[in-house]
Amino acid sequence: MAHKKGGGSSTNGRDSHGQRLGIKRFGGQLVSSGSILIRQRGTRYKAGRNVERAKDDSLYAVINGIVLFEDKGGHGKFISVLPQDEAKVGGADRAHNAAN
Question: Which CATH code, of 2.40.50.100, 1.10.3720.10, 2.60.40.10, 3.20.20.70, is assigned to 23-99?
């Protein structure tokens, strides 16, 4: 039996493609219904108002509106989509927090 492998192709010559995970739409951005807001593995972010979770844990908008990120401490981080009349463009999360 040979003690060394033959000089053929390298053993480490393969790699998988990146999964393109991450946030796709940011707070204050105007989105249309069906837009993917975040691609994730697991529920790092949870679905808030007017947002649904897909089979692969991605979050997508159900209505047209403005994206809002909320951190509810021990309850987790939520992504919501507010109708345009409820939120101002360009600072929806700040306008919402100031009202509460």
Answer: 2.40.50.100
